[in-house]
């Protein structure tokens, strides 16, 4: 460090005022380094002795109270994940129900189609029988009208 001071002193004598700026930079750097060392020592103390050695008691009490309040809020919050699982299971069950009903309706539609095709000849036969009955009844009525 003595060597640095000698070099700085020699530069001051040769260059004049600009060397004062270098002295300011050196002193600012020294101040920064000493502040950093102090911070590192405090961090080391905090790591070794815990937060009680570094922080005042009111700060610790406030921090502990805030953490306890946050824990209580988190614990009392509804379990959204569990409720979401239930809702998704219900939706899936309803979809399965709709698929089952759709399958049942498709089967019923097929059965009704077969029944409709099966009854179509019977309906045609019934229509023809009605025509035959009507023809027979009218043909039997005419001879009695002619006689009268």
Describe it.
The protein is mainly α. The chain contains four helices and no strands. It has helices at residues 2-15, 18-49, 57-76, 80-147. Helix 1 (2-15) runs antiparallel to helix 2. The radius of gyration is 52 Å and the shape is rod-shaped. The termini are far apart. The relative contact order is 0.03. The model is unreliable at 10-14 (pLDDT under 50).
Helical residues, percent: over 70%
Number of strands: 0
Main sheet?
none
Distance between the termini: 156 Å
Strand content: under 5%
Query: Low-confidence runs (pLDDT<50, min 5 residues)?
Result: 10-14
Radius of gyration: 52 Å
Shape: rod-shaped
Number of helices, where a helix is a run of at least 4 consecutive DSSP H or I residues: 4
Structural class: mainly alpha
pLDDT averaged residue by residue? 77
Query: What string, H for helix and E for strand, traces the elements in order?
Result: HHHH
What's the SSE blueprint?
Elements: H1 2-15, H2 18-49, H3 57-76, H4 80-147
Quick gist of this model?
This protein is mainly α and 148 residues long.
Keywords, separated by commas or semicolons:
148 residues, mainly alpha, 4 helices, rod-shaped
């Amino acid at each position: 460090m003595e060597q640095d001071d000698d070099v700085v002193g020699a530069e001051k004598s040769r260059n004049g005022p600009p060397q004062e700026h270098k002295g300011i930079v050196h002193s600012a750097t020294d101040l920064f380094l000493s502040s950093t060392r102090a911070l590192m020592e405090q961090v080391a103390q905090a790591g070794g002795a815990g937060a009680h050695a570094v922080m005042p008691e009111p700060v610790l009490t406030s921090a502990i109270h805030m953490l306890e309040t946050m824990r209580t809020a988190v614990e009392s919050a509804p379990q959204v994940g569990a409720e979401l699982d239930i809702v998704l299971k219900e939706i899936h069950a309803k979809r399965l129900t709709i698929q089952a009903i759709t399958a049942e309706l498709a089967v019923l539609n097929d059965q009704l189609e077969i029944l409709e095709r099966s009854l179509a000849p019977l309906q045609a036969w019934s229509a023809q029988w009605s025509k035959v009955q009507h023809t027979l009844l009218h043909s039997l009525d005419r001879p009695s009208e002619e006689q009268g």
